Structures are given as structure tokens and as C-alpha cells.
Amino acid sequence: MYFHPALLFALVATLAYISVRRFIVRRQFTLRHGCQPVARASNKEPLLGLDTIPGTIRALRQHKILERTSELFRVHGTTFTVKELQRRAIVTIEPENIKTILSIKFKDYGISHRLEAFRPLLGEGIFDTDGDHWAASRALIRPSFTREQVADLTCLEELIQDFFALLPRDGKTVVDLQELFFRYTIDSATDFLFGESIGTLKKTDSEPGFAEAFHYAQKAVIVRGMLGPLNYFYRDRKADECNRMCREFAQRFVDEAFNAAETKKEGHDSQEQQSESKRKRIFSHELAWRTSDRRRVLDEMMNVLLAGRDTTASLLSNLFFMLAKSPDIWAKLRREVTSLEGREPTYEQLRSLKYVQSCINESLRLHPVVPRNERQAVCDTVLPLGGGPDGLFPVFVPKGTLVSYSLYALHRRTDIYGADAHEFRPERWMDGTLRPKWGYLPFNGGPRICIGQQYALTEVGYVLVRMVQELKGVIGQNQGPWEESLALTVCVRGGVPVVLVPDEKGEIQ
Ligand code: HEM
Ligand SMILES: *[C@@H]1O[C@H](CO)[C@@H](O)[C@H](O)[C@H]1NC(C)=O
């Protein structure tokens, strides 16, 4: 190839001009905001940042990735930069910084780097888009999470009966609660979203179906996320097949929802409409009523299914893992629910059971089911803390930088929670003086705060209270400490094997 020298010169000069200009603009920006350099997790091998990889692999093998991150914060302070495989990221557990990313400077950050990994399963919806597309998703979905919707406990009770039917009550058979919780939440999520539960708790055969395909499809999301740009070369036929299966499965309900919406719009069957208002409301039907875009409804349903299912099951599992180690806490829960006199709790009663709520808060603190998260800067911006030798100055964040935050490490800060921050102690929530604000973010904060928070807390509270009413004791069979099973959410490695001690009246089935 031949370049005229003048052309070459012009090219080099332009590139030089662009980078010098950018340097000057950024330098001015840095000065204007009083930014100072941020601590670095040392890279002895600065070119690719490979020196941290052995430690990561060791932590992976020991199932201590979350602990390793906490350790790094103890060594390098509460905000520092890391570089792994040429990707530079700022990591932080400063509440002020997290508040800045999620709320104050919400518009400076995005999540569209997630889209490539999620799209084959989710399409484009609330969980993997930014800007106007995201805002439209949120507006579409939000009205389906009204209080009356969330307070409908009928389905939760029906499913708890299926769940109870699977519990051994001989006081010696070991059962894995985690496995059952994942079945409970997929049954309730499909009922809420599709209007019809897929009934995995009722099934006796283990024929692979939607739940298994959905599980595999999620694993593939993580692989694609880790590969980043290399994704282009990655093919997984089984994942393609699972994505197709899940989406086709949901498509049936979308079609049905649009048929229902059309009949309703044409004003047919007014009789059915009347009984409709008394019957439960179905997510897919509501979306079909609000938009005519079938693809959009399918995508949003997949998004909400992903956001809502494993999260709730993981919370139940992490919570019960700790409860099964703490007979005192179980006894205290038993005393609290006696106020219900054996009746099923209402929505209001659930809210008023303080110790129940404290146990849930404490599980989400010690084992936040979304244990880490990140945002990517979409423009040059600034974080209030982390710069300078003691981290008290602002930090410059160039466009494209990933800013990650660890809820796992944040929730264990002793300056927020006290010297016993590493212990499971629900009592810390009881007197109402613990107000951690941006130091406690199990459901995230700001405009993208979890839409399903009340729904999830209701479901988890309901299952917990019904279990406490039903069982005198839950005896954990795993003697070791809690270990992470880390995917998009974190649950318990090895599951939650327990032996159940039935209440006198409930024994021998
Ligand atoms: C214990 C249970 C749950 C936890 C800990 C949890 C946590 C979270 C977190 C941390 C986010 C923020 C993700 C991000 O922006 O990066 C989120 C978003 C979301 N959650 Fe939940 N979630 C739970 C249950 C649910 C349930 C049951 C539903 C629905 C039925 C749900 C629906 C959503 C949706 C739609 C979003 C996206 C909101 C947006 O980006 O505007 N979540 N959740
Ligand atoms: C649980 O945590 C939330 C969020 O910080 C708080 O609003 C609520 O009062 C807490 N519940 C209890 C029982 O302390």
C-alpha cells in the first residue's frame, strides 16, 4: 500500500491533535473538579494486568471470590482501580460514590455493555437497555406492581401447600430446601407473569422442561458476559436451543394475552369482563393491554422472569441456611408468629412482624443475592471520593470506565454495622436505629431500583412465616460455613440440606 507523505502527515497530525486536545480537556476537567489520583491495586505486570489472575483463580477454586474482593478493599482502601486483561475498572464501597453512580449522576452511567450477553435470551427490555428504551420499559411494567397486585397472597398459599407436600416429617430424612425454593419461585413467577404456573412442585417426573432450559440459558449469559468481545467467536448450540425453547414457551402466553386483549377491546363478553375484574390480574395480559408490540411484551416478560426468579429463591436459601444453624432465632420467630394464632398471615400482618422482617434484612445484608454490580461511564465524569492519599478527594472517571461496587463488602463495613458486621444477628435491626441508607443496597437505589422489591419481600416473608408455623425446628446438616455459589445471583454452595422437626399437630402425614 502506498500513502502519499502529505496524506500520512495529515493523518498523524489529526490523531495527535485529537489526543492532545483530549488530554487538555481532561486535564482541565480534573483541575476544575479538584480530582486527585486514585489508589491502584498494584500491577507488577503492568502491560496486561496478568499478575492478579492467579489470586482470582485460587479464590474461584475455594469459592471465595466475594471474600477476596473484601480483602482487596481492606488492603487498598474503599475506592481503587484494578486492571485485568487490559480492562481498567474503578471499584468502590463508598456509599457517597454509589449514590453518585446510581442517583445523583444517573445520566452519566449506563449498562448497555450488558446487552450483548443478555440479548439472545432476553431480547431488549428493562434489564438490559438504557435511555428512552429503558424508560419506556419501566413505564410499561411499573403499573403491574401496584400494592393490590402484590398483596394478593392466594397463589403463594396454594404453592405453599404443594411445597409442604414435599417435606419429609419423620424427623430424620434429609431434604435440600434450596432445590425446593427454586421450584417454588419458578412456580410463583410463572403464575404471576403468565397467569398459569408451570407447576414444578407438582411434577413427580424429572422430564427436562422450561425450568432446566432457563437455567442453562442463564449460564450461557454469564459465559458471554465474561468473554466480552471474544463473544463473536463463541458458539454454544445447546444455549441457542435453550434460548429458543424459553422464548417459544413464553411466546404462547404472549399470543394468548393479545387474544384476550383484543376480545376485551372489541367489548365482547362483558360478563366475562366482570368476573375478570374480580379474578387475579395477569402480567402478560396487562402489558398486552398497554401496547400493541408483541415482541416488546415477550422481551419484557423474559426480563422480569430473569430479574425475579433466582433472586427470590437465593434469598430464601441464604436465609434458611443461617436459620438452620440458629435454633435460638427459630425459637424467637416461633414466639413472634404465635400472634397469628395459627392463621395464614395477611399482607399487613406480614409487614408488622418485626423479627421476621429483621431476619430478612439481615440475610440480605450478610449475603446480598446481587452481591456486586457495575455501571459504565458514558461520558467523562467524576466521583466524589477516592482520590488522593487518604481517598478524600474526587476522582476523575474517563468515558468508558467501568465502575463496579461490591454489596457484599459494603454490607460488611464495620464502620457502618459495628465490630460484629460479619455475624448473622437479626437483632441489630430491631430497635430501628440502624439506618444505613446508601450503605445498604440489596435492591439497588435510584431510578433503577428493583421494581419487584415489595413482591419479593412479600413472597419471602410469606414462605418464612408459613414454615415457622408448620415446623418446630429446622436442623441444618451442613456443618461448615456459608459458601458462595456465584452466578448472576449468589446462593449457597452445596444447597441447604436440613432435617425438619414437625409441629406436634402436623406430624405423620
Ligand atoms: C430478593 C429478591 C430480589 C432482589 C435482591 C432484587 C434485586 C435487584 C437489584 C439489585 C436490581 C438492580 C439491577 C441493576 O440495575 O443492575 C434489580 C432490578 C430489577 N428487579 Fe429485582 N430483585 C429481587 C426480586 C425481584 C422480583 C421478584 C422482581 C419481579 C417480579 C424483580 C424485578 C426487577 C426488575 C424488573 C428490575 C430492573 C429495574 C430497572 O432496571 O429499572 N426483582 N433487582
Ligand atoms: C429493613 O431495611 C429497610 C431498608 O433499610 C428499612 O427501611 C426497614 O425499616 C428495615 N426493617 C427493619 C425491621 O428494621
UniProtKB/TrEMBL annotation:
Swiss-Prot/TrEMBL cofactor(s): heme
Domain of life: Eukaryota
InterPro entries registered for this protein in UniProt: Cyt_P450 (IPR001128), Cyt_P450_CS (IPR017972), Cyt_P450_E_CYP52_ascomycetes (IPR002974), Cyt_P450_E_CYP52_fungi (IPR047146), Cyt_P450_E_grp-II (IPR002402), Cyt_P450_sf (IPR036396)
Protein family (similarity comment): Belongs to the cytochrome P450 family.
Designated name of the protein: N-alkane-inducible cytochrome P450
Annotated SUPFAM superfamilies: Cytochrome P450
Membrane-crossing residue ranges in chain numbering: none
Classification via Pfam families: p450
Keywords, ordered alphabetically: Heme, Iron, Metal-binding, Monooxygenase, Oxidoreductase
Organism encoding this protein: Aspergillus keveii
Record flagged with keyword Heme: yes
Presence of the UniProt keyword Metal-binding in the record: yes
